[in-house]
Amino acid sequence: MKNGHSQYLKDGGAKVDICATFKKNSDAWLNEECGNYPKGKMITMNNLKIKLANKALSATNITYHANPNRDTLIYYLWKYSYRDRGSHLKEFKPTNSSYDFKFNLIEDEYLKKQMKTKGILSYLYYQDGEVLIDELSPKERLGEFLNNETKFYSMSMGKSVTAYLLGHAICDGYIDGVDARVNDWPIIKDSLYHDQKLINFLNMNTGDQKYIDEFDDGTSKLGAYEDRDIETTMRLHFRNKNTKKSKERYNYNGFVTQLILNYMKFKVGEDYDKFYSKVFNDKIKIKNSIRYGYTSFKEHFGNGHPNIMATRFDYLRIAKAIMDDYQNDTCVGKYLKEIYKRRIPKGSKEKEKPLFNRTKSYGGQFHMDFPGLKDQIIFGMGGYGGNMILIDVENSRILIVNSLHYNNKQYKYNHKKLLHDPFKNG
After folding, report:
1. Which domains are delineated in the chain?
2. Which of 31, 186, 252, 291 lies most in the core, judged by the most C-beta atoms within 10 Å?
3. Is 281 helix (H, G, I), strand (E, B) or coil?
4. For 290-338, what is each residue's pLDDT tens digit?
5. DSSP string covering 333-374
6. d(CA 175, CA 267)
7. Buried b (16+ CB within 10 A) or exposed e, 330-349
8. pLDDT tens, 3-40?
9. Pairing mode, if any, of strands 102-103 and 130-136?
């Protein structure tokens, strides 16, 4: 009601009895605990014509093969960017002045045409110290809900941000380096992860594919690990289970990044909030608050989660900081060069990502060696729904695509023109 979009509410925002919309004693009726509301459970409902091809699979994300209508996109935009996530996201507010970008804008009519029909919410292109392209989804598409303070949620982008934070922890002396063995963290002692080098975690080749495989059979062997702290996952699936490390190979999954984040927090200890502020306030110079994840209130159980919510320009500030470190050969820049040097081949099955993001290599939680750009050093972040951050660290080019949905049919955007050409042609 207060956000100016009451036209999307049923009966103008009048409260209705949600229990009256369900059959008595049905699963939905029971889930809403309707038996406890004899006079009705009154809520405000939307009037969107939401179409879900598979409701079970669509609980958290738009399923990959779906071709949703605009109302369904509006619903998921609300889920991703506007619903209350206070139960599992903390807010970090900036305290210093932010970095301000220079603009020298050009028009890209083809991009505008794509944004009228695809799931792209925001597109930013930065080159040689200036923002050259700055586009939001057209108002009639999804733009009426977007501005420069809208936060975009991603778990996969958070993987790369976690690795960037780790570089600072190494440079600040909390961790010895990428070849340090993780053998001083009691929480993982009785698991295949104990005593492995940190570079294995960074490259996602810890040999854990028997227990988690997000491409072949989902994450069923570890269950809902993303909703749990490390202690709970270890107790349920690894402790006293005699788990064995398999052959080292690339195995993209979110649990390894949870381990990296929580090991870093363990090593930094009580200085972590100050450390986090040093990176995001003093170096990156964010303008808006950042929201980051946790899974429980028990920090000593490893409750950190590497998801992130940030505005479009704060994602650009993060990417610029990475590029600046690399170019200026700072300690963190040397770390970035080391993880690039130590990258490994993927040989993977990433069929549900944009073709351009199916890179040949992976290093330090970044996608590397992009097709068609073999002579360029590009650090890539790729997320579900077609989200992309590409950083050409040598040629000072950055591309940020925040996207709500992607597939290889109706919602497939033109990889060559939108992703490849800016880095090939400038």
Report:
1. 6-82 (no CATH), 89-173+262-425 (3.40.710.10)
2. 252
3. helix
4. 999 887 778 889 999 999 999 999 999 999 999 999 999 999 999 999 9
5. HHHHHHHHHT-EE-----TTS-GGG--SEEETTEEES-TT-T
6. 7
7. eebbebbebbbeebbebebe
8. 566 676 666 667 888 898 889 988 888 878 899 998 88
9. parallel
